[in-house]
Amino acid sequence: MLQVNNVSLQYGSKKLFEDVNLKFTKGNCYGIIGANGAGKSTFLKILSGEIEPNKGEVTLDKTERMSVLQQNQNAYDNVTVLRCVMLGHKRLVRIMDEKEALYAKPDFTEADGERASELEGEFAELGGWDAEYEAQTLLNELDIPEECHNMLMADLDAKRKVKVLLAQALFGNPDVLLLDEPTNNLDIKTVRWLENYLLDFENTIIIVSHNRHFLNKVCTHICDVDYGKINMMLGNYDFWYQTNQLLARQQKEQNKKNEQRAKELQDFIARFAANASKSRQATSRKKELEKLTITDFKPSLRKYPYIDFKYEKELGNDILIVENLTKKGYFENVSFTVQRDDKICIVSDKSTTITMLYDILMGKAQPDGGTVKWGKTVTASYFPENNNEYFQNCELTLVQWLSQFSKDHYEEYLRGWLGRMLFSGEEALKQAKVLSGGEKVRCMLAKMMLEGGNFLIFDEPTNHLDLESITALNNGMKNFKGCMLFTSHDQELMNTVGNRVIEINGTKTFDKNITYDEYIDLITE
């Protein structure tokens, strides 16, 4: 069992954690969530011992082993892929190295024999005889072919390095497994494999992730980092979110009732305290007022932008017809027709294929063949994956920037839209060129809402967003009544928004009215 006792961490005047007490037990999977900067990854580093808390301690049973998903892809460049995986169990590798060194000695002594015997015993206890086979099996299941197993890590591409480091973390059946953003840079088939692996994992798992679908699939508990505390709740991310929203509403309603009752009592006391015939009632009201406490409800540090796409013009029967569309190096003879109420997930092995398709549909690029025919009632609005052209070297303030896309140019009106996207007060006067990646995305979403398109195209809109903004965007896309083409690495968004999947890979096109999860089931069978 992993236990956190009275842990506090402070950097200067900033308190990250204060008196945190938690127990992580076998057979459970704990998702760590919190606002950006709340200290999720820092907490994992405290658990692993990489960071020492100012106060308190983290204890792990001496017989148990912890494994951590490494973030530095280049840390093992000088070792082979197979050895990199086995280094997930450092004690086992040290025994193997020491054994090899002993047996290689030309003057092997009796003392060396005794030491070798000790090592052989511990090697067997740790499952050493099956270790290489287990490492190879993990690599094969992660689609790292055998011809790569004895290559140096330095010779692997980035996507394969990520998988090898994942295999390293999983190797040797650790008692406690710490995973920081384990689905980053993984293809959907590998994410599905990891989900199934963790569901069968019998020990303790602790995860930091922005992937809501992943958290919902594997987590038995959610640990919410907020106000320097970490509160643990049974259930997955969706259960935590719905419960948190419900409790917040109930608390606000109760506070409102308490405030109203307090005002009534105060008015009564003020009016009748000096009246002898009413003095007894006034005294009893005063006692009631003293007992009546308005709960000091502390809203979460998390802020959810308000995202709601509306349009004025209704769509007609003719919306979008694509026939035999071809772009050399990207796709050939792509054909599909968009119907009313279609919200289509566009998927491809290459993200550049999807971006090129969207650019052609929006007239930003020209096809080598085929036709694109938009209906006369359609007003399309596009969220490009690369938004540099909107922000690079832009000296405008956010109010001025947003004004470019609005019919109403009054500052208060524009500030209202920026406020919805969490740019309040002086933040609305920041220059557009200094925005972070997530801030740029929120500005682009405000632009799309102002444009009021009845046909929306999204190319990776969840990139750079935190969980709260992704959740708000997900809800906004679900509630949109027009048509949509979209692509995202966020599986929850893809599954809950889309009602049709089109896959484009070269000359191959898959097109079916199914959910994204049903599509994943088909390609992973």
Largest sheet: 6 strands, mixed
CATH topology of the largest domain: Rossmann fold
Q: How many DSSP H or I helices?
A: 18
Strand order of the largest sheet: 5-6-7-3-8-9
Q: Assign an overall shape.
A: globular
Number of strands: 18
User: What is the averaged pLDDT score?
Assistant: 90
Q: Class by helix and strand content?
A: alpha/beta
Rg, rounded, reads 29 Å
Tally of domains? 4
Q: Which ranges are low-confidence, i.e. pLDDT below 50, for 5 or more consecutive residues? A: none
Cα-to-Cα separation, first versus last residue: 36 Å
Strand content: 15-25%
CATH class of the largest domain: Alpha Beta
Q: Name the CATH architecture of the largest domain.
A: 3-Layer(aba) Sandwich
* Fourth CATH level, the homologous superfamily of the largest domain: P-loop containing nucleotide triphosphate hydrolases
Q: What percentage of residues falls in helices of 4 or more residues? A: 40-55%
